[in-house]
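On to my pick:
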Amino acid sequence: MLNRRLGRTGWRVSEIGYGAWQIGGTMWGEVPEPRAHAALEAALEAGINFFDTALAYGHGRSERLVGEVLRTSGERDRVRVASKVPPMNWQWPAQEGSPLRDNFPAQWIEECAQRSLANLGGDAIDLLQLHVWADSWTDDAEWFDTLTDLRDRGLIRAFGISVNDHDPSSGLRVVESGKIDTVQVIYNVFDQTPADELFGAAQRGDVGVIARVPLDESSLAGVLREDTVFGESDMRRSYFRGARLRDTVRRVERLRPMLQGAGQSMAQGALRFCLSHPAVSTVIVGSVDEEHIRANAEASEMGPLDAGLRIKLKSHAWPRNFY
């Protein structure tokens, strides 16, 4: 596993990180605790040292599982854990015109940080992120002063934001403001828009970039079919509703010859695409399949895709917002 610097934090984090949404057990179907433990242990064994979770993932279950495994494994000191404060109104994405105080008032940020710290255990949360973002909040001092205070008190070590799905421009001003240490954003073969402006701003400001949804909720792993049926509690039932599953699968099949080849799965090709951009610090991938976790981690040592292929992939961009 290769490591990269997470912006101004100076931390060396694994190029492939672990996204712990799925083990929350509420939006991807049930995940028994033994299976979640095995998945987290497989990630550690594969050299992953960056774990991204959130208070909203299973209402703290994901955080508790991450904390338990890191304590029992004795690996806590070598791992960086990121979590997120959910918006107080529980609205994803942030609604246009929604005031900061309906989403992240000081008392709510403090309360959630304390809950996350209790779930995770340890002395401090390495990275605390706001789970949605609106450009209009950039100049509001309340969120920044609260997070700065948490850092100064030693409850967190760094802070950042998680940008609304498929809306990287909404995070541009705050990245340019110099107020945050990291920005988390959707980046994959279909949604390449962060590379237009956001990544350049992050590089200029030394802001770490956490790329999420690199496999487009599993479609870019090449495992879905037009007749795939998702469980009642699987969020992909909504994400790929109507004609979206059919349209997505057909686009994925056009990509397969470019991303899949001898000794490389399609998922690994999609992850290498994300790692090909120098602004990206780490790519977080969620899975409870131990074999998939190990294969995802191996993408790091395969290196970036060649320049010619990256140029060809530009024509396959398919930005859309499914809300």
